[in-house]
Design goal:
Shape: globular
CATH superfamily: Transmembrane di-heme cytochromes, Chain C
Number of domains: 1
Oligomer: single chain
Structural class: mainly alpha
CATH architecture: Up-down Bundle
Distance between the termini: 93 Å
Radius of gyration: 25 Å
């Protein structure tokens, strides 16, 4: 890969994707709230949807949290508890299991979307496209597992990727060390960033609503108190009834 393209993809492209992800989501919420939904097809073949959706969401949530914590947590914060090679093996095993669970669920959803005539008729092209992109991304993630296992002794791959991610979030991009990373990692990273780029223009925006529901659950209780108006006796229904009694 030419060095100019390499620097663009891993030093500049992440910020482009993040800007479009945030601003695009805000613009869509402001201008097209009626399209802010998951477009559920639960009424059509609900059993396959239930299994596929549950497996997919369980797997993808675990992978999202694992990637976020694993990449953005500095090594100094966990070295007293677990070594870098041990952490990489933990990531390989747990990520592999979650990836397989997610793969089964996503394959079921993709099969349902592609081969059920009624569901395909009611689906948007972007629905099918985003599922295919997610499926390819998941396959690429599973492909990286043997490469990660090959670097298990020194955890070099994990440390290089974590260092790159931490430099990005602190606005000190440095992709020089990524040159030595195996190609599946690079393709997986670029496609992952592209998913964030496409996020505001797809049904994935409903993910924001999922995070918002957590804030709704944790909100303080609303106190509702009854209040009687100080009405004259002739205008107070309760007093009139009491007087007649």
């Amino acid at each position: 890969m030419p060095i100019i393209l390499h620097n663009f993809l891993f030093n500049v492209y992440p910020y482009i994707c993040l800007a479009v992800f945030l601003m695009g989501s805000l613009a869509r919420f402001d201008r097209d709230q009626y399209t802010w939904k998951s477009d559920s097809s639960q009424m059509l073949r609900a059993r396959q949807l239930r299994w596929g959706s549950n497996l997919f969401h369980i797997g993808i949530l675990f992978l999202f949290v694992g990637h976020t914590v694993g990449l953005l947590t500095p090594h100094i914060f966990y070295e007293w508890l677990i070594t870098a090679p041990q952490k990489q093996m933990l990531a390989i095993v747990s990520g592999g299991v979650a990836g397989l669970v997610c793969f089964v669920g996503l394959t079921m959803l993709l099969h349902r979307r592609m081969f059920d005539p009624r569901i395909r008729l009611t689906s948007h092209k972007t629905d099918l496209a985003i599922l295919i992109i997610l499926w390819i991304q998941l396959v690429l993630g599973l492909v990286t597992l043997p490469f990660s296992y090959a670097h298990r002794a020194d955890a070099s791959a994990m440390l290089i990727l974590a260092d790159w991610a931490q430099h990005l979030v602190t606005f000190r991009p440095d992709a020089s060390a990524l040159i030595a990373i195996d190609w599946p990692f690079k393709v997986h990273m670029v496609l992952g960033m592209t998913i964030f780029l496409l996020f505001p223009f797809s049904r994935l925006v409903h993910v924001w609503s999922g995070f918002a529901s957590l804030a709704y659950v944790l909100r303080p209780y609303q106190l509702v108190r009854s209040r009687r108006l100080n009405l004259p006796r002739a205008q107070d229904p309760a007093r009139r009834e009491g007087g007649r009694a």
